[in-house]
Every structure is written in structure tokens, then in C-alpha cells.
Amino acid sequence: MPFFLRTVTLLFCCSLASSSFAEFEPAPQAIHDLRYGETLYHFYQENYFSAITRLTVAEKQRPIRDQGAEPELLLGSLYLSYGMYREAGKIFSRLLRSNAPQYTQDKAWFYLARLRYLDGHFADARAALQKIKNALPAYHEGARWNLLTNIFLQQHEYQQAIDTLQHFTDEPVWRAYSEFNLGVTLSKLGQIEQAQKWLGTVGQLSVPSDDQELRALRDRANLALGYTDIQAQKANAAISAFGRVRLSGPLSDKALLGVGWAHYQKKDYSNALVPWMELRKRPTINPTVQEALLAIPHTLELLQKPQAALAYYNEAVNTYKTEMTRLANVLHAVETGELLAALKPRSLNDESLQLREQAELPDSISSPYLSNLLASRQFQNTYQSYRELLFLQHRLQFWQRQIPSYRLMLKEREASYQQKLKIIRDDKRLAQLTAFIKRRDELAAELQHIESTQDGLALAQGKERGILKRLNRIEIILQHLQGHGDYSEQAEKFRILKGLLSWKLNTEFVARDWQLKHKMIGLDRSIEKTRATRNALRHSWQQLAPSTFHDYEIRLNGLASRLLDLHQQINIVTAEQTRFLQKLAVDKLRQRRRHLENYLIRAKYGLTRLYDKLHKDQRGAP
Fold first, then answer.
1. I need a surface site. Which of 165, 294, 395, 616 has the fewest CB within 10 A?
2. How far apart are CA 390 and CA 376, in angstroms?
3. What's the CATH number where 110 sits?
4. Are 356 and 384 in contact (CB under 8 A)?
């Protein structure tokens, strides 16, 4: 049965499943550096490019030291997610050479193992995993054992892969992936019973309704199990497996097709027609629908219903012709770039590595084929790279548009500086410093003279100076009154008062002299500080500021040139990726066309053969 042989190959098209890239889960800790907090904000918003930018800028300016090795682990994991294996490897290797705590080294070994696995160095990846001494956080612990299981599968050590399953504890998602991959691998090796065991385990998982990832994996497992059962001639088991695939899920078409073939294998042709008739109502763009259109008349022939078979053969021929015409138009549209316009993301600011499902397909003749194209892992990876290139192109254009703003800011800053410079240069206080220094020297000389003559009266302060002036005036008056009367009593009082003042000033001479010296030291410091400020201002307006403005201008010119160079490079790479994506789409569509041509030939052959048979039967009738 040629139809059945083709569908069995669907099983072997089931590649090893892998979960989405394990997200880095930062260790719970207080945020001591706001830059790391900002990075985590962008990370949890899935703005991964912005997170990388914040971390690399911090590394260049002032590395984040207060958060341990978490910033480096985060940066390395982001590089790994972007496919920047070399940069990620440098970070993880550097952490392993440092005196980082065991927890950090274990995570570094884990990421290094994934890096080596992605590079195809399975033995090195296995060795890296064996370096992990302690248990990782729950999610990473499950990913660790899943990675080891896949390594054993790649190295054809199947029993060890089975033994690894006992290490899974609290992460059913990772265990399910490992069991699924094990079942698919064993089925490819022809170990059908073992494959059915592991696929059946995943296919009968009890999954919460909100766990879409596990529900999708369960559907894949049941689909693979169903075709494995058909291959093993277990039609009833296949029907049960296909029945566990969600009718509303993306694999429902393949499941309906498989159910039909399972009944066909039992020679229960009437029940085989039921799911195929359901498929017939679905869009004919789907390959499973196209195959069902051919299987229906063939089965009707077996049911001895030639007239109905003729009608469905004719329907199949017309459908294939219509689909080929539509496909030809789509091919032309894709070759002229229409598909790429349809695939272009609505927002070029999306930094997430996840492919977003669009609520509405773009208005494009190739839109109905987008979901079928994106079902291919190769096309998905190519399209993901194309989206990332478009994002980088958009970001470079954004940065280029900022350069004129920075130039204007620099120009305004320089104009403001020149305006303030004139005010500062004309400030008379700068010229007063010389006079202050001269006056200070005079005071220092006067103090030295007072110290040498031990003149206590020269250190009189405040009210004392007033009293001293009054006493000096009284002394002059007394001298003028000599010979004009008896003023001996007043002279005696004057002598006593001046003696008291002199005694007080002379006894406090040392203390007052020390205070004046202390104030002189403070004055010297103020003068030196003022001199340094004046010199700094002069250096700023004569050398520093002009060179700074010039340096910023040079940096802006350098950045503008670098951005232009990067933009040219990204344009070249984007153009190459665009051509590759377009070629990949064209190749996929041409492959679809070849399948359609094959279906059309077989439908026409079946139609011709049935007409010939009916004609012979009529001629041979009495």
C-alpha cells in the first residue's frame, strides 16, 4: 500500500525534541548595585539585548562587584542564547579559573557543557557535566540530566540514557523531554517495543490544562507512538494513541490521518473513511488533507463503490490542480520578495528570542503557507536569525539618528560654557587674591614684631582696644595739664587702670599669640585653597575644557563612523540572510509542488484505471 508507506515516514521525521533555551535564573539575593537591578528588569521583560547592553557597558566603565558572579553568569547565558558561543565560552572559562564559590563553578560547568554539546563535542560536554559537584537549582538540575541523556543518545549509549532517567525528581518537563527523545531514538533503531514503552509514558502523562508545553509534547509523543504502533501492526493501540492527540492542537491533522490508516490496516475501510472525510473539510493547503483526498477514493474502491470513488478521484484531481495553480502564484510572489514582507515583524523593537504568534496573518498571498513553513525547524532557525538581524539593523539606525542630537548637545554645552567663562573671567574676586596675600604678609610681619618686642598691649582685642584708646587720650590730656593744677589723684587712677590692663594683656600674651598663629594657619589654608581653585579655573578654561570638547567631538565622529561601518556590514549580512530565507522558502514550496504533482499523477492514474475497469465491466456485461 503506497499511501501507507508514505505516512509511516512521518514517524521518522520526528526529530529529537528540546525545550526552549533554559532561561538563566538569577540566585535570590539583595540588589546592591542599581545597574544590576536595571539589567534584571530588562531580563525579566525579555529585553535581552538591552540586558546585554547594560552588562557590557558596566563591564567597560566599572564592573559590578557587589553581586558576586551572577552578572557574568547572566551575560554568558544570554550570549549562549544568541548563539555567541565564543564569547559565552570565554566567560564560563574565566569563572572556572577564578576562586568563585562552588555554586558558581557548578553553573559555569553546566553552561559550558551545553556550549560543547551545541558545538557537537559530546565527550567534552559529558566531561563538563561530571565536574558538577552539587545539585543545581531545580530547573537547571532537570536540564542537566536531560542534557546528559541526550549526550548518551548521541553517543549510542542507550542503557546509560535509560539509567539517567532515575535522577529526575521535581522537573517533569525535562523528564518528559528525555523520555520522548529516548523513544524516538529507539524507534529509529527499530527497537519498537522499547520505543513504545517510553513514548507511551509521555503520551499518557496527566498534564494541567495551563501547561501548554507539556500538552504539546504529549501530542507529539502520541503521534509518534501511533505511527510506531502501525509499523508494529498494532492498529488498535495506534487508534488509542491517536485518540489522545488534541483535536484542537496543531497535530490533529496528522492524528486524523493516522487513525484512518490504523483502521485501514485492520481492513475496517468504512471507519477509515470517517477521519479522512473530516480531513477533507479542512484547508487543502495541508499535506495531510491532500493525502486524505487520495486515500478516500482508493478506500471506496475497496468498498466496491466505484461511482463514489470516481467522484472523489475527480475531486482530488481538481483540488490538486487548483492547489498547484495557487502554489505557482505563491512561488512567484515569494521569488519577488512578497513573503519576506509578510514575515517582517510588526514591531522591530521586540528583543525577545521567542517567535511571537501573530493574532492576524498579514494580507499576503503567501500567508496561508506561513504556518506550514514555520513548522520546519530549519526555517524557524533561519527566520529567527532574520528577525534578529532586522532588530540589530533597526537598533543601529536608532543609534545613528541619535548622533546629531549628541552633536547638538555638545554644541550647546560648549556655548553655555563660553558664556559662563566670560562671567568667571571678569569676576573681580579673582584679582583680589593678590591683595589678600599682601595683607596676609603684612599681618605676619606685624605678629613677628609683636613676638620679638613682647608687646602685650598690641594684642588687645574688642573692648580692650577701646579702653586702651581712651587711656591713651587721658594720658595726653594729663600731660597737657601739668603745671596748671593738682591732678595727682587723676594721674594715680590712670596709672592703676593702665597697669591693670597691661598686666592682663601681658599674662595672656602666650595664649593670645598662639590663637593668632592658629588663625594665621587657617588663613594660609584658605589662601592656598583659593589659589588652587583659581589655578584650576584657569587650567579649565585654558586647557581642560577646550580639549574635552574636542575629545568628545572626536569620539562622536568615531562612533558615527563605527555605526556606519556596522550598518553597512549588517546590511550585507541581512541581504544574504534574506536571500537564504527566500531560497529556503522557495525550496520548501517547490518540494510541496513536487508532492502535489505526485498526488495529481496518482489521482489521474487511479481515475484512468477505474474508468478503464468500469468500461471493461460494461463491455463484458450481458
1. 616
2. 21
3. 1.25.40.10
4. no
